[in-house]
Amino acid sequence: MDLIKVNPKDIIFALDIGTRTVIGTVGIVRDKKFHIVAESCIEHEERAMLDGQIHDINLVAAAVHKVKSQLEESLGFSLSKVAIAAAGRFLKTATVKGTMEIDPYVEIDKDIIRSIELTAVKLAEEKVNKQSFGKLYCVGFSVKSYYLNGYVISNLLSHKGENIAAEVIATFLPRTVVDSLYAVMDKVDLEVINLTLEPIAAMEAVIPSNLRLLNLALVDIGAGTSDIAISSKDTVSAYGMVPMAGDEVTELIAQNYLVDFNTAERIKRECSVKEKVSFIDVIGLENEIDGNEILEFIQPIVSKIGKEIAKNVIELNGGKSPNAIFLVGGGAHTPGIKEVLAKELNLPAQRIAIKGREAVVECECINKELGSTGVTVLGIALVSVKRLGHDFIDVTLNDKIVSLFNSHTHTVMDVMLQAGINPKTLIGKNGKNIKFTLNGTKRVAFGTLGTNAAIEINKKPASIDAEVREGDCIIISYAKDGKNASAKAMDYIHNLHSISFFVNDIITNLEPVVTINNNRANIETAILEGDEITIVYPSTLKEYIQFFREENKNVKFYVGNEQIQDSYVINEGDRIFIIEELSLKNNEIAMDNKEICCDNKEICSEENKEDKKTYEIEFVVIVNNKSITLKNKEKYVFIDVFDYIDFDLSYPKGNLVLMLNGNKAGYYDNLKTGDIIDIYWE
């Protein structure tokens, strides 16, 4: 490509700052491909980076400046903007299980599932925060398992239950990592137009989006770290990092054969392709070692690295091996690493492939000699092209700006997570029900229904899975819980009508009778969980006596002149009179004129009447202002008066009043001559 015709405004400058090398690539997009026009690759003069982490900002800045200067000299113009990537080493991963109580009568929908996922991710963030400080960006998560009522289930959708749970593995990037990268760029006068993650970049380069429907794993084995990315269901679902890579092998060779780091690196590369490997050690002696001997020596550390990578791949992929593994990075050529991974992941050897630059179909490369080492920088460029220069996107959530790390397509759920919104605000709980028994039948008083959160993006209805873009305005009307059931006995009385009637001319109402747990209760009494309610609608005399009277002995009930029985149905307006049952004189008094004669118990005949003892005592009392003389008895009580007056007790006309000398009297109060008696109906 003719460099003179390249417009500086159209170029993309990508930098891959690795543990050992800094690679710079400049290209332009034409015919839907990224065409490289210039490249530069140098090694750090000193170990300014360890395991992908910047330890000396000035030394790293010096290396970046050298790459930048070489590219500018080749291009003939200055570079001012750059796309970079953060190493996977900085990713913080946590596995947690989040639980949530739900309404057992409501089917589980997508919003409920997203809410439990968000709950688990928040718990993961809290777990990571205990180990590090500063702001965190969630760059991805995957669900390992769902649970319904404590049991594992593959899909929660449309089920019902009392509690659900989700176990997730979530990955976060600390903001401090971003700041250190930006510090290096500031020192070399470069403006960052896009920041991604190295495993995302490698995935973008090697695994096209149309293949991400498959469950694949990409492992970028660098010098200090091995970055892992998992693709599934058209997205990058999980990220991880193993703090072991090619340098582990190189350092072991250097220590064993007494050589410098660069010589050890050469020995590592040559031992698998040459029968004999020659080198000069630090003492100055020439050595020639059999390649197989070196391979045998490094096998334990290679096996250790491979096992650790395989273990993390399985964990990130939900406890199972992916369908295939793609390896990139300089460490991908470590002798024996493919074989160890195939064994540990139980995959055929042909399903583990090392991908070089030739596999990046969306790029046209000038130099393919960099092989798998130069893959990540191409991915950084491709990600930058797609994201149009944004490493963070800003959206507005309920009038507050939320910044999201532009690592993948974001949804409303990601915004809520970054804003620290409690996932419980998404799902409205129905009010609690009250279960009780009414007249022997099980009943339920239902609480009111809760309302779920309503989401709008740019004033249009949306869901929690809706994609968000730079500048979007999101409004969430949070869920509202339903009210708990508040039942009263009166709510279950189907007929509140009462029967009004008179008892001894006093108006009385025959109303429904409520008992709660065998105790009489007011109809306004609140019903509680487990209560046993009985509601009776009294209508007969027996029910009136049972529920509304306390003293019922020695009384009779009349309507008009007729005595009524327990089965009598009380009607509206009835006039009922209650009369105490009178022991009208002892029936045996009739024997006053008889006398038991003689010691032999014979009853004296009519002829012996003249010998009967009689009483000549007379009592004079005033009854209702009239003088009455009581005769022929030695002792009189109040009830005896009725034998001497005309007073009809058979037809009650109210409450019977008995007065003796101005005081209330009883039937069996003793009388004496001169007493003043009043008897009347009230």
Short description:
The chain has 682 residues and is of the alpha+beta class. It contains eleven helices and 39 strands.
Question: What can you tell me about this protein's structure?
Answer:
With 682 residues, this protein is of the alpha+beta class. It has eleven helices and 39 strands. A five-stranded mixed beta sheet has the order 14-13-12-17-18, sandwiched between helices. It has a five-stranded mixed beta sheet with strand order 21-20-26-24-25, with helices on one face. Helix 7 runs parallel beside helix 8 (337-345). It is rod-shaped, with a radius of gyration of 51 Å. The termini are far apart. Mean pLDDT is 82; it is low at 582-615.
Secondary-structure content class: alpha+beta
Mean pLDDT score, rounded? 82
What's the arrangement of strands in the largest beta sheet?
14-13-12-17-18
Count of β-strands: 39
Distance between the termini: 126 Å
Outline: rod-shaped
- Helix fraction? 10-25%
Low-pLDDT stretches are: 582-615
Discrete helix count: 11
Strand content: 25-35%
Largest sheet composition: 5 strands, mixed
What is the CA-based Rg, rounded?
51 Å
